[in-house]
């Protein structure tokens, strides 16, 4: 068994039909885990599961669910257990950001959507998976936060607040669940080339603005974050909990 081996482990990864979530799912499969692919659209989930099963037959299943609907998440966890018998790793990756602009102009509806999808859904999922982890005295929860949670923002205010709250959620859960050998950590990516963040990088001018302040002189790729998730989920991260690991090419430095 190597430090990064995930053989025998089962991971539920929200927002895993594309971007960072899909990269995490693929890397976990390549390191031996079985994974549950979930997002709102069934077709996308099934396509990704098929890709991963081509790498290792039986390694992935698709269970569509909306993070905004608690009953969807309850069915996601129940069906994951029915399919694989257990859940060892939860990756809360899915998030929403319906508003870009001044914090003084955001509607109550948009603000509430960000808070519920980016914080409350993660709280619900943690409540749903940790009882079995406590019973086994083993488990991992990873929350994908953002460097937005570490800095102020003039145009992503609600999103930044939600990601700061995720960092605190991980700390609180780490303290409460640590005695049962459940590790809870955050990953805070910088700007990664995904569809979710496309508005921030797709023009050459926007990308250049980011690169000037990034010591490694490139934007992130989904696999840059996925490698950190494998590290935290595996024995390599066995003595790490309550932490936020920044993956941003040096931007916050």
Which key phrases capture this entry?
7-stranded parallel sheet; alpha/beta; 253 residues; 7 helices
Q: Can you walk through the features of this model?
A:
By secondary structure, the protein is of the alpha/beta class. The chain has a single domain, classed as Rossmann fold (3-Layer(aba) Sandwich). It contains seven helices and seven strands; from the N terminus they run βαβαβαβαβαβααβ. It has helices at residues 19-30, 42-55, 70-84, 108-136, 157-177, 204-212, 222-233, and strands at 10-14, 34-38, 60-62, 89-92, 139-144, 182-189, 244-247. A seven-stranded parallel sheet has the order 3-2-1-4-5-6-7, with helices on both faces. Helix 4 (108-136) runs parallel beside helix 5 (157-177). It is globular and about 45 Å long. 46% of the residues are buried.
Write the layout of secondary structure elements.
Layout: E1 10-14, H1 19-30, E2 34-38, H2 42-55, E3 60-62, H3 70-84, E4 89-92, H4 108-136, E5 139-144, H5 157-177, E6 182-189, H6 204-212, H7 222-233, E7 244-247
Parallel strand pairs: 1-2, 1-4, 2-3, 4-5, 5-6, 6-7
Specify the oligomeric state.
Answer: single chain
Give the biggest beta sheet. Answer: 7 strands, parallel
Rg from Cα: 17 Å
CATH superfamily, by name, is: NAD(P)-binding Rossmann-like Domain
SSE-based structural type: alpha/beta
Spatial strand order of the main sheet: 3-2-1-4-5-6-7
Overall pLDDT: 94
The total count of strands amounts to 7
The CATH class assignment is Alpha Beta
DSSP helical segment count: 7
SSE string, helix = H, strand = E?
A: EHEHEHEHEHEHHE
Beta percentage is 5-15%
Shape assignment: globular
List unreliable stretches of 5+ residues. none
CATH topology: Rossmann fold
- What is the annotated CATH architecture? 3-Layer(aba) Sandwich
Helix content: 40-55%
* Number of domains as seen in the coordinates: 1
